[in-house]
Fold this protein.
Amino acid sequence: MRKTAAEARRTRERIVEVAVQQASGLGLSGLTIGTLAETLDMSKAGVVGPFGSRAELQLAALDRAVEMFTEAVVAPGRATGPGLPCLYAVIDAWCAYLADSPFPNGCFVTAASCELDARYGELRTRLHDTVTRWRGFLTEQITTAQAAGDLDPHLDPDDLVSLLGGLAMAANQEIQLLGDERAAPRARRLMRAALASRRPLALRG
């Protein structure tokens, strides 16, 4: 009997949810149809069918991880005013996400970046575009804060974006590899201090 569209969608979503969890630990390149089929108690054909190929399944897993990051980190920022309020909300949500990651290997995008940085192909391109959009979002909030007079107008936004990203990556490593429970609060404090130190002198306090 043919599945309804709703049933097919639920099956696809279930496969993607398991795939993204497995890819967090095994890497996107380590994601196999056989392992997924065994975990889901499905046939290999049933697992790959909704996607057409393993490559499309890998892309779907990456897209889902990005959706989860966006919901957890970007959405709280967008719910505030643009510029500095958004940056503070994003920092708080970002560090909370790192401290209580939904993935067994911590931040999915950070892990995937380490895995794919030298592996050219569609997965790397998709990840590159994702990171570029994320950095663009942060840059937009920084330039908005500069225009509002909340951040030093002479600040190079790329410098601050790199600093915030570096602190997040360091915190992810400290949490996942070193088991440092202070890493996320430390990252939050340092990120907020980075913003405070780049406010115009008249607004510091």
